[in-house]
Amino acid sequence: MSAIPNKEYEVIILGAGMSGLCMAIQLQRAGIQDFLIVEKSSGIGGTWWDNRYPGAQVDVPAPAYSFSFAPNADWTHRFADAPEIQRYQQRLAEQHGLPARMCLGTAITEARFDEGSGRWQLSLDSGETLSARFFVCSTGQLNIARWPDIPGLADFRGQLLHSARWPQGVDLTGQRVGVIGTGSTGAQLVPALAKTAISLKVFQRTPNWVLPRVDRRYGRLDRLLMGLPGYGRLTYKAWCWALDQGRNGFEEGTLARRAVVGAARWHLRRQVADPALREALAPRYPLGCKRIIYSSDYYPALCRPTSELVTTGITQMTASGVVTADGREHELDTLVCATGYDTTQPLKGLSVAGQGGRLLADAWAAGPRAYLGISVPEFPNFFLMLGPNTLTGHTSALLSLEPQVAHAVACMQRVRGEGRQWITVKAAAAQAQDAAVQQRLATSVWSHCNSWYRTEGGRIVAIWPGFARDYERAARRVDDSAYELG
Ligand code: NAP
Questions:
Q1: What fold characterizes domain 8-44+98-144+342-485?
Q2: Residue 344, pLDDT score
Q3: Separation of CA 184 and ligand 1 centre (Å)
């Protein structure tokens, strides 16, 4: 654990991923230097620290997966891999002197708003306590790994891995490997594992929509051009605009939708010759309801003679492998669970108590919700980054993140500028904004299937229903009438 220089801060940021870094940099720009980043992992990166499985890549073009204020001239490919993104994060942190303001390898276990002082009291797993006027949760929605609920999982005597907790130095060469899960992560893992495994069984519950990933290497000329401020900025803007147009593909009857569906079907036909395998891989839910997968090597990996797509449901695990409903036992040396995240309780493991001791877990009993995904009524001076209903299914999460940071910093500045103790969103404003979002989602493509975007009760908790630019407009400026100060 890194040393904690003080016990009292103006701002404590939970998480050293993209959101935590962005928040820290913008605090510095706003002249708020008194902050600390607390991170449970031993390094910088957040999801990019956790997701170090073979083949891990960003699934939006890297120029749009950089901050608008920190273009990166060093991307080696259009779709950067996890280590490259982690290096970008590390470099940013160092440029802004952030490592000295981080407490790594430490988890916040409890956060309690003290109404007398208007400050957050935070307990750490080390037993220490900290206090801060403002508490920012920069954990995002994809940080609690979800294991599959398969009977006998604990009985498996082979190696059991989760994609989001990939240990360093694991080599599966020459092994009989199984992968459960065929989402964005599974589709990245499978091609990488298929190259070295002696046999690969991919357990698919739901076939997904896959589009080609039109990757390309960035050469010296690209890097030279990207280093020119005007060109880097233009490239960023162009990618953000083009990706946001993808939102049109989620509306029934649009030309964009017909084009995307046609491209996905063509991709499947072109890459999979075997009609039975093609049929097994054909999606049966409307495009966009789950996250679209971008891959040009997933289907070819499944077509290898050493690969098998298993579509019969899993009934149980035994000491030696997976048993499917047809009675087959699939013997494995390693089982990889690419089974995603628990997004319905994004801060599970951290007890957060606001005004009157109200627990966030209780406020979120029917699913997480927050005003613009940022502020929760009765939780003063508390801000979420990449919170509920802020993600889109079509573009970079960073486009939502930057306005959230601006929003939270503006709220902090208001409290500081007016000499107040706290700011909190009014319940009526939060309810009205939530109702408008849920109303749009109720008739959207995301209401047509089960996914990590929804709770078991059917509430869509992850998705912002519109264009990213609409969210940016809504979140960047603070509507003073939505907040109250004390
Ligand atoms: P996911 O989309 O939730 O996929 C989980 C997979 O596991 C699904 O195929 C699911 O099947 C399957 N599964 C879960 N429990 C199962 C069980 N008991 N038996 C059989 N199958 C089971 O998770 P993910 O692939 O990790 O992706 C989550 C999100 O992370 C993505 O949507 C994306 O936003 C993000 N991500 C981003 C990148 C990037 O490059 N930026 C890369 C990877 C992930 P069902 O569909 O039937 O439920």
A1: FAD/NAD(P)-binding domain (3.50.50)
A2: 83
A3: 6
Helix ranges, 18-81 (H): 18-29, 47-50
Q: pTM for this structure?
A: 0.95
Distance separating alpha carbons of residues 44 and 35, to the nearest angstrom: 16
Instruction: Decide: 295 in ligand 1 pocket, CB within 6 A.
Output: no
Evaluate whether 309 touches 277 at the Cβ level (below 8 Å): yes
Sketch the domain layout of the chain as residue ranges.
Answer: 8-44+98-144+342-485, 153-220+245-337
Range 137-165 average pLDDT? 95
Residue 198: strand, helix, or coil: coil
- The reply to whether ligand 1 has any atom less than 6 angstroms from the CB of 314 is yes
Q: What are the backbone angles phi and psi of residue 163, rounded to the nearest 5°?
A: -55, -35
Domains 8-44+98-144+342-485 and 153-220+245-337 share a fold: yes
Q: Which two tokens stand for residue 420?
A: 């107040």
Evaluate: CB of 138 within 6 angstroms of ligand 1.
Answer: no
What's the rounded Cα separation, in Å, for the pair 160 and 321?
10
| Residue of 156, 166, 201, 205 best suited for mutating to test ligand 1, as the one with most atoms within 8 Å of CB | 205
- Cα separations (Å) of 300 from 270, 271, 337? 10, 6, 21
Measuring from atom 40 of ligand 1, which residue has the nearest CA?
58
Domain 153-220+245-337, architecture per CATH: 3-Layer(bba) Sandwich (3.50)
Q: How far apart, in whole angstroms, are the C-alpha atoms of residue 142 and residue 342? A: 7
Task: Tell me which of 414 and 141 has the higher pLDDT.
Answer: 414
pLDDT of 319-378, one tens digit each?
999 999 999 999 999 999 999 999 888 888 899 999 999 999 999 999 999 999 999 999
Choice from 162, 184, 396 to test ligand 1 binding pocket (greatest atom count within 8 A of CB):
184
Report how far Cα 452 is from the mean position of its chain's Cα atoms: 11
